[in-house]
Amino acid sequence: YFVMPAARNNVGSIGRKMAQRPQT
């Protein structure tokens, strides 16, 4: 991802949540 570290952190958190529950 080509974004700031803060945004990357958010994306990582969202990705983890998505993996746990694909139905977001």
What do you see in this structure?
- This protein has 24 residues and is mainly α.
- The protein has one helix spanning 5-20.
- The model has no long low-confidence stretch (mean pLDDT 59).
What keywords describe this structure?
1 helix; 0% strand; mainly alpha; elongated; 24 residues
**Count of distinct strands:** 0
N-to-C terminal Cα separation, in Å?
21 Å
Q: H/E series, N to C? A: H
Per DSSP, what share of the residues sits in E-state strands of 2 or more residues? under 5%
Name the helicity range: 55-70%
User: Would you identify the regions where 5 or more consecutive residues have pLDDT less than 50?
Assistant: none
Shape: elongated
**Biggest β-sheet strands, sense, barrel:** none
User: DSSP helix count?
Assistant: 1
Q: Rg to the nearest angstrom?
A: 9 Å
Structural class computed from helices and strand pairing: mainly alpha
